[in-house]
Amino acid sequence: MNRVINTEVAYAEPEKQSIIDVAIGEGATVKDVIDASKITDLYPDIDLEKTKVGIWSRVVKLTDVVADGDRIEIYRPLIADPKEVRKRRAQKAVTEGRADKVTGGRPNPLKGQND
Fold it and tell me: Rounded CA gap, 66 and 24, in Å?
């Protein structure tokens, strides 16, 4: 007889978050735990074929075996690339004069003054 392990499945949208406790037999996969949680009934837009999943912030495959105490996280797709957002914000700061064009840091008010 398989030992029972305790896991959680977590998923969040901006307006609603869910953490579902799942007790399942040892040797279960990530997909087994997600299926047992029935979280896709609460969030029908979850497509496990396209969505990344992880255990404690580490991306894993649906076929990976879970351990006692694992928290399985279902990740939403990013709306915008974080690198691109930072690049646009930095460029805006340069054009508005809030950042030095060379270093990207705050402009030095003493730079360019002739004493």
Answer: 10
How many whole angstroms separate alpha carbon 25 and alpha carbon 72?
A: 15
H or E element at residue 21:
strand 16-25
The predicted structure's pLDDT at residue 114 = 56
C-alpha–C-alpha distance, residues 41 and 1, integer Å:
29
- Locate the domains of the chain by residue range: 4-74, 78-110
What are the tens digits of pLDDT across the range 7-53? 999 999 888 899 999 999 999 999 999 999 999 999 998 999 889 99
Could you tell me which CATH class the domain 4-74 is placed in?
alpha beta
Cα distances from 31 to residues 52, 54, 114, in angstroms, run 12, 11, 68
